[in-house]
Specification:
With about 450 residues, the chain is an alpha+beta fold. The chain has helices at about 15-25, 30-35, 45-50, 90-100, 125-145, 145-155, 190-210, 215, 255-270, 270-290, 295-310, 350-355, 360-385, 390-405, 410-420, 425-435; strands at about 65-70, 75-80, 105-110, 115-120, 155-165, 175-180, 220-225, 235-240, 320-325, 325-335. Strand 5 and strand 6 form a beta hairpin. Helix 10 (about 270-290) packs across helix 13.
Length: about 450
């Protein structure tokens, strides 16, 4: 077991690695070399990455890929995607290509409101708290003007502060439920700074309020923090075409395909076990764009799944229907994204990703990202209701399996050819490699 270490963060990078080698890798140079192999030869670039977080000892690469041919609101996009799962980019590209000749994707931001809360305890008369709040509301907002003035110039700011009584659930518990617009920033730092200021002002104003008793003056702030549940930071994307334009195979006519597709979505709407996997597939597309554009994928994941259970039961984020022989497939998802601040001006690949998308504002990025999720879901359901998922998935995974077996370039060429007409399975790759090597 490694010993307790103090002052680790203050060690140099080389000393951190030395400590790890000694206590975790039996001084094996391979471990040290692996870490060093991933350093960037450009010192300045490496320093930039080192400074993103604490205790950075190396870089962790993920593929930076692109999915071309996305027609969104009449404009063509090549979408950057950062993801390790082998079939995701191919699936997105395939869906993009399919829909570009059928009118493309339509997308629209429905609202862009974000939420933050000051959670506090007040012991006393509720009516008096309400009166105090009504008197103090403007003072709270004014007290944060040094934080909000720049955001207001960019079209954002504090929208509303509401006092919420939560005492039926926890005794003496109240909230300032605050709404914000944050223009092109994701806005976490802005919102949290505002909330912390509101909390300070709430406490100091309560102390001075003559209507309160000594006990009532003692408002205790429990915490001030933004919420990643953003049901009003919502975007909708959809595709639609005549049923006759849907895939038509010997196994399924276009009409049967449409019905089977809608049925598959209906299952995800009512069955949580399916809905979670269905939405996971949507998040394959969404997270990949969120990561490539330097946004916070944990926030997006948390918000999306909370939204999927907003009515008390976890359900699908997408919906499909056939009406008057028109097939429509759509997604509605909360996406609190930013195109300024955070990593967006720092990480060279993030800057490039945003450039690739034509330097979108936050709303445009919400639309593009929702489309990536819808496309991914379309591709997944298309495979599930026709060939099954493994055919495409294993085809894309073949290279990973070949690399696991340390296949040579010649072996790879031969086996890629073989698996063009044979189903890829891990065991068959093993058998074929063994045959080649005999
Ligand atoms: C795999 O990463 C995602 C899928 O399972 C999604 C789905 O089942 O809809 C293919």
């Amino acid at each position: 077991m490694a010993p307790i270490v103090s002052g680790f963060s203050k060690l140099s990078k080389a000393d951190k690695i030395k400590w790890l080698a000694e206590h975790h890798f039996d001084n094996d140079v391979t471990a040290t070399n692996t870490l060093i192999t991933y350093w960037n030869s450009d010192d300045q670039l490496q320093r930039l990455h080192d400074e993103f977080t604490e205790n950075t000892i190396s870089n962790y690469y993920l593929p930076f890929s692109v999915a071309p041919n996305f027609l969104i609101n009449g404009k063509r996009y090549t979408i950057p995607m950062t993801i390790e799962e082998s079939s995701v980019v191919a699936a997105a590209s395939k869906a993009a290509k399919f829909w570009q000749t059928r009118g493309g994707f339509k997308a629209k931001v429905l609202s862009a409101i974000k939420v933050g809360q000051v959670h506090f305890t007040y012991t006393g008369n509720v009516e008096k708290l309400n009166q105090f709040f009504n008197k103090t509301q403007d003072i709270l907002i004014a007290s944060a003007s040094h934080i909000t003035k720049n955001m207001e110039k960019r079209g954002g700011g504090v929208k509303e502060i509401e006092l919420r009584d939560k005492t039926s659930e926890i005794s003496n518990y109240y909230q300032l439920h605050c709404t914000f617009e944050t223009a092109d920033a994701m806005g976490a730092n802005f919102i949290n700074s505002c909330l912390e200021q509101f909390a300070k002002t709430l406490v100091s104003e309560a102390k001075e309020y003559s209507g309160f008793t000594e006990t009532e003056k003692n408002i205790e702030i429990i915490m001030s923090i933004l919420s990643n549940y953003v049901p009003e930071c919502l975007v909708r994307a959809s595709v639609s075409c005549s049923v006759n334009e849907l895939p038509n195979t010997t196994q399924l006519s276009a009409k049967q395909y449409a019905k089977k597709f809608v049925r598959a979505v209906n299952i995800a709407e009512i069955e949580p076990y399916r809905a979670v996997t269905h939405n996971k597939g949507i998040m394959n597309g969404i997270d990949a764009v969120v990561l490539a554009t330097g946004n916070d994928f944990r926030a997006i994941e948390a918000g999306a799944h909370a939204y999927a259970s907003r009515n008390g039961k976890y359900t699908s984020l997408t919906h499909a229907e056939i009406k008057n022989n028109i097939f429509t497939f759509s997604i509605e998802i909360p996406l609190a994204l930013g195109t300024v601040g955070g990593l967006t001006n720092l990480h060279p690949l993030v800057k490039l990703a945003l450039q690739l998308l034509g330097k979108p504002n936050a709303k445009k990025l919400m639309e593009i990202t929702a489309v990536a999720g819808l496309a991914q879901n379309f591709a997944a359901i298309n495979s599930l209701i026709t060939t099954g998922i493994q055919r495409g998935h294993m085809k894309m995974h073949l290279m990973n399996i070949l690399n696991q077996f340390e296949a040579t370039e010649i072996e790879k060429v031969q086996l890629i050819k073989y698996f063009k007409t044979n189903t890829v399975t891990h065991s068959d790759v093993a058998t074929q490699i063994e045959k080649l090597r005999k």
